[in-house]
Write a structure and sequence with these properties.
Elements lengths: L8 E4 L3 E8 L3 E5 L6 H4 L4 E5 L4 E4 L5
Antiparallel strand pairs: 1-2, 1-5, 2-3, 3-4
């Protein structure tokens, strides 16, 4: 399984998206303000997602 890197955009929990701000051993810290409808969803600005629970939808690097 490929781990996300800082700056990657990931998707999790039925379509929520965020930008990875920090990569930990078992999880990533994600900024959710990337989403256009962030204010409507009344979510916290940041959340922690286990590496098993997301997919990378846009990489920050050109590999």
């Amino acid at each position: 399984m490929k781990k996300a890197q800082i700056g990657d955009i990931i998707e999790f929990k039925e379509g929520l998206q965020g930008v990875v701000e920090k990569v930990n051993e078992n999880s990533v810290i994600v900024n959710l303000t990337h989403m256009e409808n962030f204010n409507e969803l009344e979510l916290d600005e940041k959340t922690v997602i286990n590496h098993k629970n997301y997919k990378i939808i846009q990489s920050s690097t050109k590999a």
